[in-house]
């Protein structure tokens, strides 16, 4: 049915879950979720090798491409890099890009206020650097939420990405 919907589809796995995700095989320090009163997820969303194998089966069955979001907001660049490598191994040539962050224009900093663009850009650069040191994958820029200026500002500061995206919520 999905092939009939679009024989050349693109599956984006990210959204809020990517900013609350952890890679089950990562052995470094894990993010803390106990102080997230405003969080969508109160505990980490764990991504496992079995899930990535199932994802590969779906991609093979549909012929679709993949954009996969990794966590650098609450996670670490090292964990994002390990997960990016695992996704690349699992998805193979189905992988269009690893996306760093979801709606970063809505991230909160340590002071509880919305994070400044420059703070996100620093996070993005650290994540991109760690990923590139570990694996050769295409990287996508911010998936901004209804904020075109963030995407434009990002585009002016880097030419290291294969895609820039912005959410559009009709009626929202």
Structure summarized in a few sentences:
It is built from six helices and seven strands.
**Ends: how far apart?**
29 Å
Overall mean pLDDT stands at 87
Question: How big a fraction of the residues is strand?
Answer: 15-25%
Biggest sheet, strands in spatial order? 1-4-5-6-7
Share of helix, binned: 25-40%
Order of helices and strands: HEHEEHEHEHEHE
Largest sheet: 5 strands, parallel
Q: DSSP helix count?
A: 6
Please identify the structural class as seen in this structure.
alpha/beta
Runs with pLDDT <50, length 5+? none
Computed over alpha carbons, the radius of gyration is 16 Å
Shape: globular
The counted number of beta strands is 7
Description of the molecule:
The chain is globular. The protein is of the alpha/beta class and about 170 residues long. Helix 3 (about 50-60) packs across helix 4. The two termini are about 30 Å apart. Helices cover about 40% and strands about 20% of the residues.
Which short descriptors sum up this protein?
172 residues, alpha/beta, five-stranded parallel beta sheet, two-stranded parallel sheet, 6 helices, 7 strands
